[in-house]
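Q: I have 415 residues here and want to know how they pack in 3D. Can you give me a structure?
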Amino acid sequence: MNKKKPSVLLIATLDTKSEEAAFIREQLEAAGLEVYHMDASVRQVMTGHAEISPDEIAGKAGSTLQEVRDLKHEGKCLEKMTEGAVICAAQLHERIGLSGVIAIGGSMGTSLGTAVMRQLPFGLPKVMVSTMASGMTRGFVGTKDIAMFHSVADISGINVITRSVFHNAAMALAGQAFANWGEPSSDKPLVVVSTLGTTEKCSLRVRKMLEGHGFEVVVFHTTGTGGATMDEIIRDRDVSVVVDMSLSEINDLLNGGLCSAGPDRCKAAIIKGVPTIFAPGNADFIIAGPHEQAVLQFPGKRYHIHNPALTAVRTEAHELKQLAEHMAKVAAMGSAPVAFFVPMQGFSAHDSADGFLHDLTLPPVFSGYLKEVMPERVVVCEVDSHINDEPFADALVQQVLEFHSPVGLVRKSAC
């Protein structure tokens, strides 16, 4: 009995990338894959084999291809074709069950290709061959599992460089497609945790203890995309409890740091009603660039040079009060059970006896103001330890167990 070939989607415009698209298709088919080509060309319709044509893509966006061309604006044309391409890809995946997607392009093709990929499920292999892959890729990758593959040379013909790049990218997708597990799932109750390296000792203990209690635990690194990804997971999946113990992205949002995750950070769980435990992990600093830039942007502060690219800028009382006010507003956005744990001996490895930004006068300021501004239903629990000490992690775990307990309708605090 012949096993069904894995099906993959190839996204490439035939009006500008026909030679490259044909080469990649040959590589994929030679590897044993069934290829569906989506051609989002606007300039002209080329003769060639594309299962999803430009006319079909435009139609899914409620236009004709000629109407798209008549926009006479590359950005507006891209917007329309992206809208249609996303719908076409989703419908194809629903109909046949894709095992992967690959796209090639410059800035325009990368914008369209990754927009399609971002709307496809986690776990579905995604490879983007792009001239933009060696620059700032956050806008393309977003919060999804997209592998950016640098084209090295321009995507203009098959030559000694691009032949290798396209072949390797195609084989990377082929390997993933044949081994694809499908969309990840688990029967265990899911807990999501935020952290940075400076609070990793705490998050590691929390993760291991919760796994010992039978939870599935996913940890996110709060450097801008990490927290946003965690919030997306909360919105899309059945999350049992949130342990949001790294608020660096909120600090950066409020103070102009490098790693803001935007104004919606931390809101998903509260709005959805997921029990949430907050802690001010990494609230002791703002993430800034190289030291010279940090001094110019944040003059008169205390600084710690984390590495040549990043400087930790010490937060003071007014910034911590600002953080407390912001978190109080977030907590008031819904009726989700919320507990806020404050480690009174320091908020990160930098804010410790061995660190360079330690200040024991500030946790009481933060905790005291937090108690004033938080909604009445939120329990503020002071723990007389450092965030990376075992008793603090143990308190967080106990609160997770209390929140997850099915006994009764009232969820109590572990304080």
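Q: Anything worth noting?
A: Residues 7-179 form a domain with the Rossmann fold fold (CATH 3.40.50.12020). The chain has a mean pLDDT of 94.
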